[in-house]
Description:
This protein is mainly α. 49% of the residues lie in helices and 2% in strands.
Amino acid sequence: KSEEEPLIIYRTQIVEEKAPMLKEPVPVTKTPKGKVSSKSKAGKLEVSENSWAAQQRKLKQSEVSQDPCEQVARTIKSILNKLTLEKFAGLSQQLLQCGLRTSTHVEVLIHEVFEKATMQHHFIDMYTDLCVLLHEHFTAQPFEDCSGKADGRKMTFKRLLLDECQMSFERLL
C-alpha cells in the first residue's frame, strides 16, 4: 500500500479544482440558425422600469443636465474603485485628466483617497505614491481656490491633505 502525501497549500498558491464529472450529459439542441444551445426553451427577458439596468440608462441620460462637480466626483470614485498596483500608471493619468480644476474637486479627491488608504491597508504604498504624484501635478498646475476661506492660507494639495488628516483625527477622538 502506498500512502498519499498530505497536500500543503500556501496562501499565495493557486489550487485548481477538477470539475466533477456529470453522470448524464446536458441535452444539446440546435437552434434554427444552426447555433448550439443547451436550453430548449429560451425566452427573452423583459427589463422592468425599476431594474438596475433601466436606472443606469436613466442616469446616463440625465448626466448631461447633472452638476459638473457631481460628474467629477463620480469619475473620481469610479477611477479609485478600479485602482490596483497593476493599473496604477494608466488610472492615475486618467485621474489627473478627469477635470480636477477647483479646490472643491481636489477636496473630494483627497477625501476619497484618504478613506481608501485607511480602509485598504494592503494598498497604502500605492495611495502614498498617488498622493506624491498628485502633489507634483498640482504644484505644476495649480487649481482654482473656490473655497471662500479667508484665513490667508494658500490652498495647495498638501494643505488640503493636512486639513483632511486633521478633520479625521478630530472625528476619531
